[in-house]
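Morning F.,

Quick status update on the modeling queue. The single chain you submitted on Monday has been processed. Sequence for confirmation:
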Amino acid sequence: MNKRLLSGIMTFALAAAVFTGCNNGDTDTPGKDAGSDKPLVGVSMPTKDLQRWVQDGENMEKQLKDAGYDVDLQYASNDVGTQVSQVENMIANGVNVLVISAIEGDSLGTVLAQAKEKDVTVIAYDRLLMNTDAVSYYATFDNYMVGTKQGEYIEEALDLENAAGPFNMEILTGDPGDNNAKFFYGGAMDVLQKYVDAGKLVVQSKQVKFDEVATAGWSTETAQNRMESILASYYADGTKLDVVLCSNDSTALGAINALESSYDGEWPVITGQDCDIANVKKMIEGKQSMSIFKDTRTLAGQVVKMIDAHLSDKEVEVNDTKTYDNGKLVVPSFLCEPVFADIDNYEELLVESGYYEADQLK
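Structure tokens below.
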């Protein structure tokens, strides 16, 4: 065993004793096994509160272990301080690579500087790490395309190119601190803005700008509260709501909850993202129209390929070197392509592919 690895393990033993008493996050694995000579990958996920992050973490851990790595997977309970502490602990434990999905993209600058100082490679996972030069790669789905597909779905569902309208639309997008939320919003609005400008799509609440429609923490409760307020203010007189542009499934669930309790009109088109089980069930019920499917197995597999290549001193595969400027550098990225699921194809995409068991959606 080399001196650096031995030193890292001894440092971790001391750090872990302190950290165990103060950590309020969820830790699923203890990290590197004593005496292991396998490379260690730290995986930092934001929360277990959303189903998709649980699946991301599980898929990442499985594929990394299958590829011969030790894995330290931790969830930060949507608390920035916890995530910082967990990443610090991973660095002390001697990780070779960090895979991080940040709670807030620009909140990890100091700890990432520590990673850079110790030559730890950092891969941003699904959420771009902002304002740091310590990130080497970014792996995600094409976030702009996610929004584009949501906008195009609405365009086709309402036949906006041909129908006279007007149609009433409200917008629920994501957390303002998540760089992805702006791409989702931008992709959708680049499709729909011309119809808003022409008066064919009318936002009765007048809340259209990103800052006006953002949902802190991607919270279902926050989305529901805002949607209930909009319904009470603009639709209580029987005005028909035709579409709710929701950037993901947690905001879509908030919209659905509000509509179920406060709206008696014809059900609107509702978009989403992630194909969470609760939302697929709502799709089957006819209450959510579609959800963008981002197969986390695909993304995890791409990250493993990136790690393999990097640790073998081979060229890391990327397919975008222009789009993702984090304020310090344009991060070399690999973008996986998303697809959408609806009532017509969800069984093929989600069940036949093995992503879910059929019983999970009943």
